[in-house]
Amino acid sequence: MPTTIDVKENGINIAKMNVLRLKKVEKLTLLMIEQNKTIGELQNKVSELEK
After folding, report:
1. Within 10 Å of residue 14's Cβ, how many Cβ atoms?
2. Residues 6+ apart with CB under 8 A from 17
């Protein structure tokens, strides 16, 4: 992501910014999916231990 100074000096390339944002959203989505999987596994382990 460009800094404020870069934007002031060079402007914004909208297409490039959209691609960067999309990549960040994709990365965060994949991270969230992995975390949800881990949470599910941990919940299963807790359930087993509570029996």
Report:
1. 8
2. 1, 2
* Contact call for residues 1 and 20 (beta carbons, < 8 A): yes
Apex CA 32: angle with CA 26 and CA 37, to 5°? 130
**Which residues touch 1 (CB under 8 Å, ≥6 apart)?**
17, 20
For residue 26, give the DSSP letter: H
Q: How far apart (Å, rounded) are the C-alpha atoms in residues 29 and 32?
A: 5
Q: What is the pTM of this model?
A: 0.70
DSSP state of 32: H
Q: What is the residue extent of each domain of the chain?
A: 25-51
Mean pLDDT of the chain: 93
Query: 16 in helix, strand or coil?
Result: helix
